[in-house]
Amino acid sequence: MKKIIGLVLLVSNLVFSNLAVANDEVESPDPEFVRDTYEYCLNVQDPETIDKKALLACVNSEMDYYEYAKFTSVEKIIEYIASVVDEEEM
């Protein structure tokens, strides 16, 4: 009986540890979603004075909401969108 209880506890620990590791992984967002989000955030700003901090915060808030990886800069967002567009053209 002790062996069965020990085995059940071991298996349950393995299952829960795998679930915890899976929850730590963050998906990369769909490039079209990033492009659409970036364009929306860009359009809600004054076109004459683009605030990069606000633009980054806007995009990252959407990434956070949908549990995607966030970007560190506006330039990284643009690079991400451009790299996918370049791959689609090939």
Question: Care to describe what's here?
Answer:
The protein has 90 residues and is mainly alpha-helical. It has one domain. Helices cover 73% and strands 0% of the residues. The protein has 4 helices and no strands. It starts with a helix and ends with a helix. The relative contact order is 0.12. About 8% of the residues have low confidence.
Briefly say what this structure is.
This protein is mainly alpha-helical and 90 residues long. It contains four helices and no strands.
Approximately how much beta-strand content do the residues carry?
under 5%
Number of helices: 4
User: What is the average per-residue confidence, as pLDDT, rounded to a whole number?
Assistant: 79
Q: Separation of termini? A: 62 Å
Which structural class do the helices and strands define?
Answer: mainly alpha
Shape: elongated
Signal peptide: 1-22
Keywords: Signal
What features would you highlight for this structure?
90 residues; 4 helices; mainly alpha
